[in-house]
Write a structure and sequence with these properties.
Length: about 240
């Protein structure tokens, strides 16, 4: 899908819009996060490596993610403030929005690990579950081969289920298999510069990267300005809430 369709989003719980940003704009963000990632990895304490290093890649040490680029990197702040994106975000949750949390996902080639199915609102515990939308910005083409997102259509209308984490992976909260096995998941490939939006309750996951190409993305978790993460499952720095409109 290449245009805003609020009815589709309300019915399915997600919407992919291609062409929001230009490819060369994504290249500028990639150059910046590559530099940031190199310095972050050099300074990363051993006790935090499991949280940030991609365990699916054995031949080299690569990051799987970085947290809160909206608070640390000017190119990501520029994306968060960009009216091309904000017009879409405000179409979902109304005018006046902030980025509460954000992530860079690297998903390196030849082994970048999958992300199990989960609901963002379990992680975030927002005061207003309807006032959360994630904008997942494709910094590279996201395809079936390199680990695009998959969504559970209509799951935004259901409850937020209790999640569990595998032993030794407290960061990897996921939907129990007995719930997930009843829910089909549909792929949502998106071109570089496109954005996949999803409701905080929507089931979503991504596959491994089995290709020779990167699948980098920037996820900006937007909330309405009066909203807050009141009962989060993981610790978040509430002082980093960044009002953009």
């Amino acid at each position: 899908m290449d245009s805003f369709d609020a009815a589709y989003y309300r019915h399915h719980g997600h919407l992919t819009v291609n062409g929001v940003f230009l490819p060369h704009e994504m290249d500028s963000v990639v150059r910046d996060i590559e530099q940031w990632g190199e310095s972050f990895l050099e300074a990363l304490p051993a006790e935090q490596r499991a949280w940030y290093v991609d365990g699916g890649v054995s031949a080299r040490t690569v990051l799987r993610k970085l947290d809160n680029p909206h608070a640390q990197r000017a190119p990501v702040q520029a994306l968060a403030r960009d009216r091309r994106l904000l017009d879409l975000v405000e179409g979902f949750i109304g005018p006046g929005v902030s980025v509460y949390f954000s992530q860079i996902f690297f998903k390196p080639p030849e082994g970048g690990g999958p992300k199990p199915a989960h609901q963002d609102n379990f992680y975030f515990g927002p005061a207003d579950p309807e006032g959360v939308v994630t904008a997942w910005i494709a910094l590279d083409d996201a395809t079936l081969e390199n680990g695009c997102l998959y969504f559970g259509d209509g799951t935004q209308a259901g409850p937020v289920y209790p999640h569990f984490a595998p032993e030794g992976e407290p960061y990897n909260l996921q939907i129990p298999p007995e719930i997930l096995e009843r829910q089909p998941m549909s792929p949502a490939p998106v071109r570089k510069g496109g954005v996949s939006f999803h409701h905080g309750n929507t089931f979503h996951c991504s596959g491994p990267n089995l290709s020779h190409k990167w699948r980098r993305a920037c996820a900006l978790h937007f909330v309405s300005n009066g909203n807050a993460f009141e009962n989060p499952a993981l610790p978040y720095d509430h002082s980093l809430k960044f009002q953009v409109s």
